[in-house]
Amino acid sequence: MKVALKIERFNPKSDAKPHFQEYSVDVSENDRVLDLLIHVKRFQDGSLAFRKSCAHGVCGSDAMIINGIERLACKTLVKDVAQNENNSITVEPLKNLPIQRDLMVNQDEFFKRYKSVKPFLINDEKAPGRERIQSPEERKKFDDATKCILCAACFSACPVIREKNPLFLGPAQVVQASRFLDDSRDRGFEARIAVLDTPKGVWPCENHFKCTEVCPRGIKVTKLINLTKKKIKNYRERRGQ
Ligand code: SF4
Ligand code: FES
Q1: Which of 50, 73, 89, 154 gets the highest tally of CB atoms within 10 A of its CB?
Q2: Which residues, at least 6 apart from 105, have a Cβ–Cβ distance to it below 8 Å?
Q3: What residues contact residue 52 under an 8 Å CB cut-off, 6+ apart?
Q4: DSSP string, 177-195
Q5: Is the pLDDT of residue 29 over 90?
Q6: Ligand 2 centroid to residue 103 C-alpha, Å
Q7: pLDDT digit string, tens, across residues 50-71
Q8: 146 pLDDT band (50/70/90 cuts)?
């Protein structure tokens, strides 16, 4: 089948602002949108820039907006998104992060906020003889959060970051914090609360659920944000605040 692929292009060296460029690509309906982009880059326009690595929904590097919705290009089949008689597909870079070039966004701010929640095990207590034992039930508590691949789809879809508070920490960042807050071996609760319980932390979230809708890993992002808010409230209550 022939697909009319409309791609948002932007080269900071030569363009004042982004513009759309259209390509006609011959593909099988079972091809993925990532295959289309690779085809365009190889055979039609070598200047096209986009990120990809694993091509199997694991690395999170090819999140982009396909027909208006944040998705992984490697997990999106042409037959599921081609629209109208001319099988058109529109591809744009993620929002809420500056465009670096074409479909690549600058991820510095996303990863700076990710690092701020200390996404690693904190425990200064003397380790027991061999290992810190955890029961299957305790491990299950943070299972959902471990699925995050840091693709930034949720960050792009967040209307709070876009319209109200660009400094809001971000959905993925709270997911990553909750991954350790819920880990029975971790002792970094207070260090993370110092980041989460601030006007830029969890509180700006208004439960729009856009993050949950677009997450390619099916993580209940909004639920984890709300559970984190609850943990903070309980902590304050315990301290009589
Ligand atoms: S929570 Fe989901 S959408 Fe957000 S970065 Fe992680 S995997 Fe991507
Ligand atoms: S290329 Fe790795 S998730 Fe799509």
Answers
A1: 154
A2: 93, 94, 97, 98, 99, 152
A3: 34, 37, 38, 61, 62, 73, 74
A4: HHHHHT-TT---HHHHHHH
A5: no
A6: 14
A7: 999 999 999 999 999 999 999 9
A8: very high
C-alpha to C-alpha distances, 235 to 36, 44, 51, 110, nearest whole angstrom: 50, 57, 41, 27
- Name the residue with tokens 């209550």: 237
Nearest CA to ligand 1 atom 1: 172
For the CA atoms of 35, 37, 38, 43, the dihedral, rounded to the nearest 10 degrees, stands at 120
Residue type present at position 169: L
**Ligand whose nearest atom lies closest to the CA of 55:** 2
Reading the block at residue 37, the tokens are 């982009």
Indicate the pairing of strand 99-101 with strand 19-26. Answer: unpaired
Those residues whose C-beta lies under 8 Å from the C-beta of residue 183, and which sit 6 or more positions away, are 121, 134, 138, 141, 142
Q: Is the CB of 153 under 6 A from ligand 2?
A: no
With the most atoms of ligand 2 within 8 angstroms of its CB, the residue from 51, 72, 104 to mutate is 72
> What average pLDDT does this structure show over 18-36?
96
pLDDT tops 90 at residue 16: yes
Q: Give the mean model confidence (pLDDT) for residues 7-35.
A: 96
Amino acid occupying residue 203: W
Tell me, what's the pLDDT at 147? 98
Atom of ligand 2 nearest to the CA of 55: 1
Residue 151 has pLDDT above 90, yes or no: yes
